[in-house]
């Protein structure tokens, strides 16, 4: 049905857009009236207090990856403060895990609630003894934010756990289909206790080159981003498929990128159908974040969906890092407009809770203890998730992130034209603040991150030589301008 656009409808749209801008532009200020107006760096980073704190912490905990020791009591909004008093604009946000900025008052209120106290001091073994308010907590938060087409959830403890339990669901589902209505045989019950078939059948999970899905055993076997994650750890013999390496700018490389995605889809289907063990599920990130922020088109992901449906393989979309608004959609896979929704979507990080949504009710095991652990998630985290999702909806933060992302990307495009060597392959257009680019070398990238801290910006890298942006949803144009100034100072001095 074609609808005509009238003057009144255009006026309504302009008014609505203006209202969104007015409302959203004041969100950061209303949350954080005392937020710093600029970074302030007093010492080297790490400074003397951080070094002393790390030395103390190192006596009991292995912490070689620590950049600095934060003072979260003093951190506020989009700024993180370290123990030396350095105030940094944070566009890394706890590896994409802070949704609403530091010390957000709405989350503090949720943390003070009776429901939170109850969930913390009486932490339930949810699988056996769920709390009388857990259904309401889920309904008002995690389920209220479920992607379109998803009416079931399994709550977990972390992103890795979400993916691991999603793998289990896929394996159980595939085995149950093969078994039919009959129960387990005695042979199955006996052989599984020796890790042998038929009780423990052969099967696999297919993932993609440069992907990251976690550091537990199953999720680590599907992770392909960096060797250091996997070295010395026994792994399942699971397949990996190529993920497109697009050329940028996209509009100048349409045909080449189309052919690259076609090549990858053909190889993907070949691997899927010829692998030595049956593939129960395919797992893919909307953006391959840890591996280097690699993107693909809607057509590529539609191709994955078509092939998984053709071969009756479960499609898992790993939204642990891309979910909850950072890409300008609540869930990044919504950008794809798939003809049919994925089977499973995993989540964590910005949700401050973890688990997976599933669209097919047959993915729910029919017997107790097939998906199970002591806690089966955490009601306290689900309470925070509820507050996060409510604030996002109330303040139009997903739409606002899309606006800010467009502003930031446009400014970065201008810098990339001016400094093409060290802002190369700029990507993330139309993907909110989920923006990345490549530096000229791994050494320059690492130095960029160091220099950015010295200039008051906490920023992250990924892959071999990429810089990635992962700010909170309260990140606005005024914060973007500070970031842009720092980026230009670093690349101009190279």
Keywords for this structure?
seven-stranded mixed β-sheet; alpha/beta; 494 residues; Aspartate Aminotransferase, domain 1; Aspartate Aminotransferase, domain 2; four-stranded antiparallel β-sheet; disordered N terminus; single chain; globular; 2 domains
Characterize the structure shown.
It is a single chain. With 494 residues, the chain is an alpha/beta fold. It folds into 2 domains: 22-104 and 396-492, Aspartate Aminotransferase, domain 1 (Alpha-Beta Complex); 124-377, Type I PLP-dependent aspartate aminotransferase-like (Major domain) (Aspartate Aminotransferase, domain 2, 3-Layer(aba) Sandwich), CATH 3.40.640. Helices cover 41% and strands 11% of the residues. The chain has 18 helices and 14 strands. A 7-stranded mixed beta sheet has the order 3-9-8-7-6-4-5, with helices on both faces. Strands 10-11-14-13 form a 4-stranded antiparallel beta sheet. Helix 7 runs parallel beside helix 15 (379-394) and helix 16 packs parallel to helix 18 (477-492). It is globular and about 70 Å long. The termini are far apart. 46% of the residues are buried.
Summarize the structure.
With 494 residues, this protein is of the alpha/beta class. It folds into two domains: 22-104 and 396-492, Alpha-Beta Complex (Aspartate Aminotransferase, domain 1); 124-377, Type I PLP-dependent aspartate aminotransferase-like (Major domain) (Aspartate Aminotransferase, domain 2, 3-Layer(aba) Sandwich).
